[in-house]
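Incident log, structure service

09:12 report received: a user says their structure output differs between two submissions of the same chain.
09:20 pulled the input from the user's history:
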Amino acid sequence: MTAMPAPPVGTTDVRSERRYRPELQGLRALAVGLVVVYHVWFDRISGGVDVFFLVSGFLITGQLYRSAQRGSVPITRNWGRQIARLVPAVAVVLVATVVAGLAILPEARWVQTVREVVASAFFLENWRLAADSVDYSAQHNTASVVQHFWSLSIQVQFYVVWPLLIAGVVLVAGRDRLDRTLTRVLAALFGVSLAYSVVLTTLDQPLAYFHSLTRVWEFALGGLLALWIDRVDLPARVRVLLGWLGVLGLVACGAVLQVGSVFPGYAALWPTGAAALVLLAGATGSPRGADRLLSTAPLRYLGNISYSLYLWHWPVLLFFLALTGEPSAGLEGGTFVIVLSLLLAMITYHVVEEPMRLRHESRRAQYRLGAVAVVLVLLATGAWQGVAMVRADHGAVIGDATHPGAMALVPGYTAVAASDEPVEPLPPMVSLGEDWGRTDSPWTCGADPLHPPLESCTLPADGPPQRRVVVVGDSHSQQYLGALQPIARQNRWEITTFLKGACPFSTASETDPGSAECLAWNTALVPAVVELHPDVVFTMGSREVRTGLTEATPPGYVEAWSRLAGAGIPVLAVRDNPRFDFRPADCVAENGRGAPQCGAERNAWYPEVPSWAGAPGVPADVRFLDFSDLMCAPDGQCPAEIGNVWVYMDDNHLSATFTASMAPVVEQRIVAAMGW
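09:34 re-ran on a clean worker, output below:
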């Protein structure tokens, strides 16, 4: 396509309307095809979503710019069009997901799925996933069925903000200086957002992946292309070369880069740059041009249904894996998933998307349509939540004769006679995923003003505290609150926590090597604990208990204990529990109670001698607690349930119900270790 001449800067003439770009729909088709194929068959992320971001920035910036040149930016009208175009299809997919989820998903995943469906309905799923510290490249068989809504959420947030931004530029600069001012604004957004993306990707890649501000530069790049692409006049041969470089670059991106673990940052320049090359190439008019392929009818049609295909492919894949129990779809299963996704996308496009796009309704009607669609999703999730609450309502009590939990493995325990009625494990599967050692009321929590960036929580004693216990570390320390809280209430202990996910108490960043955030946390932690001067600090003494005897006590652990020992503060270090690559409770739901593959063999996971025994430099006032005998039976099996209580809430954390059942033994061993 020959570039159109641009009007002089400052002219009030409206720039000529861009001609229809058939290769743009082909580019969308290529992007969604890569997303689907890489998800289904390669268990990887392709970078195709970044193409959608750039294309969205390209299209909406061009539309809003041309509207501004005509006289005004139609903010509310633009929002209404986007609502009518996007929300109905979203509602259809989310309601269908709720119905299928109720029938297919394990009950342990219900509550989290309901929460994410609601977040997706309000286009906030990216922040929901960021708050939950989700790894987008994690295994599909444990992923959320609406996880893919993170990108749509960012796009809709962009659609809300972008008209306001351009209207603000028009208000400040007027139409005469719109080109120059808008270019400067978009260039500034591009630079600042890209820099922030690079920094945050280095510090906290999972957060950066879902953060809206790390993606603004991709929309801004598309906007800059929309403003300047018609002013670029390239020879036909160069444009043919650029087109193919762009196409090949897009196809290769997901194969070469581990997109899920390195994006966005600098790496996201690859797919966005490749897409920009395709747009710069435009319509070459050459039979050898990439646009000839991208403009074919099949690819244009795939581009038309790309939105619906993106919405459907992920839940179809996840439900297929849930039904088959397989970690991946395979060739035949993947073909079935893709074909079914295409059929659902075609139906949604022709029955929902296209009719809504062609309807010429008032803005008020468009907004009403969006509200009704969201309400339908909320009603569906409300009904699902109601079913979950009924399932979670049980009369059993932890520690009673039928649900002894860990106490069933204590020597001398006598099991009750079996009854004809089956005893369901606690907690109910539907609430298992939420069965966590919490620090809500009567705990008091807040930031530590004297030691930023620390946050602490305190469980006060009923009267003057007899002991002061500080719990530090990551979620594996936090899981023992289920046992420590009843002990504290019974013995008038005051418990204070300094807990940070994925940040064990260490002088190094064990989970995410080099994490400045974790290092800063632990650096501030030692003086804060020293000022409190508790009777004991409770933390983890080992980590990474996996098959193959991988348990270790890192040197950073020992060094952190030594710093407390120098201040005269004793440490109780606890042996870590097994970590699986699946959820034991889900395995039981699929294979039946007592299935050996749903647990672990102690000899394959725990070395005979704990890892701390060989760690050099351990201070003399560090005492060690080993509760592995409460997680593994005398026959050497570490099962998914013990004493009719689920041991694990997910793939590596003990359930609060199980740790609560451990309380009598935990208390006994703490008192013995400390000589209290």
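09:41 both user submissions now match this output. Likely a transient worker issue. Closing.
09:42 reviewer note: The chain is about 55% helix and 5% strand. The radius of gyration is 29 Å.
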